[in-house]
Amino acid sequence: MERWIDRQVGHRFDKELEQYRHQLALDAETIRAEHQRLLHNAALVAERKHEVFRELFRLTHIANGAVAHLFGIREEPTFEDHTVQDAGHFLDSLGVAAGVKEPILRDWDANRPAAIAELKRVKRRVEILDAERQYAEAWNYFLTNSLYLPEPISQKAASLFESLREVIAIAKFPEGTRHRDSGEHKRNASDRLEELRILLRTELGVVQEGHP
Question: Can you give the residue ranges of every domain in the chain?
Fold first, then answer.
């Protein structure tokens, strides 16, 4: 009788032990699957972050160039020796509408100074619109991908955009009553862009030449 009881107890113990081992195996598999999922998600996030870093710098670099082009020394034609055909080709290269181009060309031979002055005003508007477009593209990318940006990078980019906005505002409203220095804001934007580049390089783990 005692032997039978021992066998019954042993059998029950072995059964419970087997069930326990089975449950441990199931739990371990669940943990491994969750771990793999977390690793996969982390890899996807890291890949997306690197993509965002590169694209953000590309867009801010382009925007900074377009905005900086609004002020400073640059070579421009006088248009004095341009024929009406030359003026038409130049306006076409700016992508202006026919309604804007035609009055200029109509006055080109009859009133060259006024036509040139209007052409330059149109050219300036196109430059400002292009700078605004490049700025808006970079700004919108920054906003829509801000979740991937560490706070120092986000703050540096925001500071860069603030300086670019100031330069565009000065170009659009040069007769503003508040004294504003476009050169100072251009330098600030250039400095912030370089600082942003360094932060992004560090975050990407890019090794500088001569450094471990």
Answer: 2-204
